[in-house]
Design brief:
alpha+beta; 121 residues; Histidine-containing Protein, Chain: A
């Protein structure tokens, strides 16, 4: 009887969980995030002008209308998914028209209509 109880209790012992991956190093890389948007007037105005140019273009997808536009010390970073290489180029061109081509970092990714695919860079 004692052996049966010991065997039964071993069956209900939770298995050791696999540790979750640690993304700390990835998250601390030198990348610009939306919360780093500067609140000074020139950066706010730059972001506002680029955002308006993007949202006014009705040929762009909803994905493209929702990309992140982050201005920091005159440098604009574009982040988020778009539907095509044409959209990626169009958004970059709009940002370059406002901030200057040398001040734009394009980190947009392309996703197809089948969202199960991984984004391309």
């Amino acid at each position: 009887m004692a052996g049966a109880l010991l065997t039964a209790s071993a069956a209900f012992t939770p298995a050791q969980e696999t540790p979750k991956p640690d993304n700390t190093k990835t998250n601390k890389q030198d990348t610009v995030t939306a919360d780093q948007q500067k609140n000074n007037k020139p950066d706010r105005e730059t972001t506002k002008e680029i955002r308006k140019a993007i949202t006014d273009d009705q040929s762009l997808s909803t994905y493209a209308h929702n990309v992140k536009v982050i201005s920091k010390h005159g440098t604009v970073t574009l982040k988020g998914p778009v539907r095509s290489d044409e959209e990626k180029k169009s958004i970059e061109d709009k940002a370059a028209a406002v901030a200057g081509a040398s001040n734009v970092k394009n980190e947009l990714t392309i996703v197809s209509a089948d969202s199960s695919k991984k984004p391309e860079k």
